[in-house]
């Protein structure tokens, strides 16, 4: 699967989410927060698709070659259903929590529903990591290490600034942003390392 195809999968999921938001607004009379959640999910996927256009051509070609290998094809085949599942569980979790759940254990289970697709994503990524060649594995593990260190430093500095009352960041928002920032830092580190090693 090429990066261009992957971009179109993002576009399709994003447009489907926006269409669902439109249907919820004008046909199904959904509450504003449900519509807003689907608009946010759709906008996120469309932004992701737009980011594919910003990456350099050499990186797209490298990714196309990498994902043309059997391990890469298996990884991508596992990935897009996980993304759809993540979108659905995220919406369901937010919608149910906002409607109100009295039982704390049930509310906890519902709140962490989106973690299940992320766990499946991590399992697919680890399987991919085991199946690739040594050079690519080195690039991947170094990128993961660099991303982990950078995000740890960022959150440590943020914690110190919070403690010194320089900034006031909501803890829930900060925790939710850990994984997306890790993914972003990993992607950037992998680009730099691939350019260096290849």
Structure report:
- The protein is mainly α and 198 residues long.
- The chain folds into 3 domains: 1-68; 71-132; 133-198.
- The chain has 9 helices and no strands.
- Helix 2 runs antiparallel to helix 4.
- It is globular and about 55 Å long.
- 13% of the residues are buried.
- The mean pLDDT is 89.
Order of helices and strands: HHHHHHHHH
Determine the fraction of residues in helical runs and give it as a percent range. over 70%
Termini separation (Å)? 21 Å
Q: What is the radius of gyration computed over CA atoms, rounded to a whole number of angstroms?
A: 19 Å
Overall number of strands? 0
Number of helices: 9
Number of discrete domains: 3
Quick one: biggest sheet? none
Low-confidence stretches: none
Task: Summarize the structure in short.
85% of the residues lie in helices and 0% in strands. The protein is an all-alpha fold and 198 residues long.
Compile the SSE list and pairings:
Blueprint: H1 3-26, H2 32-54, H3 57-66, H4 70-99, H5 104-111, H6 115-131, H7 134-163, H8 171-176, H9 178-197
Which descriptors apply to this entry?
198 residues; mainly alpha; 9 helices; globular
């Amino acid at each position: 699967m090429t990066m261009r195809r992957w971009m179109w999968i993002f576009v399709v999921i994003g447009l489907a989410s926006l269409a669902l938001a439109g249907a919820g607004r004008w046909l199904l009379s959904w509450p504003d927060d449900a519509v807003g959640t689907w608009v946010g999910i759709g906008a996120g996927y469309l932004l992701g698709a737009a980011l594919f256009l910003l990456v350099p051509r050499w990186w797209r070609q490298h990714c196309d070659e990498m994902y043309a290998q059997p391990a890469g094809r298996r990884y991508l085949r596992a990935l897009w259903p996980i993304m759809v599942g993540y979108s659905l569980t995220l919406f369901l979790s937010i919608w149910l929590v906002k409607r109100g759940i009295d039982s704390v254990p049930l509310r906890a289970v519902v709140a962490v529903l989106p973690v299940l697709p992320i766990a499946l994503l991590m399992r697919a990524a680890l399987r991919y990591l085991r199946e690739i060649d040594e050079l690519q594995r080195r690039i991947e593990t170094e990128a993961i290490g660099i991303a982990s260190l950078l995000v740890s430093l960022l959150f440590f500095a943020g914690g110190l600034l919070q403690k010194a009352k320089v900034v006031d960041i909501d803890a829930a928002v900060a925790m939710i942003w850990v994984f997306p920032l890790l993914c972003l830092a990993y992607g950037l580190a992998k680009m730099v390392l691939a350019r260096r090693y290849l």
